[in-house]
């Protein structure tokens, strides 16, 4: 994790763009819950759209945050079915959030575009993305 004033950052690396989106989602989960055990008892397929990869990543992570905050789905795992230039379709697995069972480490307000970049170099995709706390 990357510390930054009122924000916290995630660095993710993966062998494919799809895997990078999964790694970034795992980073968001770690910021929210750390090592807290969450079971995969529910699933929600989501599809988001954007004008470029960076906007897609922000939309993907913000949708996961929405599922947690509004639908009370504590995320356990993630899969990506498809990433195109303008859309991402994937699934979030988890269970209903329960304060008695799930320790929430931090409240995240939003995923930001601050200093966001997705790059591929020598077959490795990487990104750095900041979350507004």
Describe the 3D structure.
The protein has 133 residues and is of the alpha+beta class. The protein has one domain (2-132): 3-Layer(bab) Sandwich (Archease, Possible Chaperone, Chain: A, domain 1). The protein is 26% helix and 42% strand. The chain is built from two helices and eight strands. It has helices at residues 17-33, 53-69, and strands at residues 2-4, 7-14, 42-49, 73-83, 87-96, 110-111, 117-121, 124-132. The strands form two sheets. Strands 1, 2, 6, 7 and 8 form a five-stranded antiparallel beta sheet that branches. Strand 1 (2-4) and strand 2 form a beta hairpin. Helix 1 packs parallel to helix 2. The model has no long low-confidence stretch (mean pLDDT 93).
CATH architecture: 3-Layer(bab) Sandwich
Query: How many H/I helices?
Result: 2
User: How far apart, in Å, are the first and last alpha carbons?
Assistant: 13 Å
Number of domains in the coordinates?
1
Morphology call:
globular
Mean pLDDT: 93
* Beta-strand residue fraction: 35-45%
The major sheet is characterized as: 5 strands, antiparallel
Rg is 14 Å
Low-confidence stretches: none
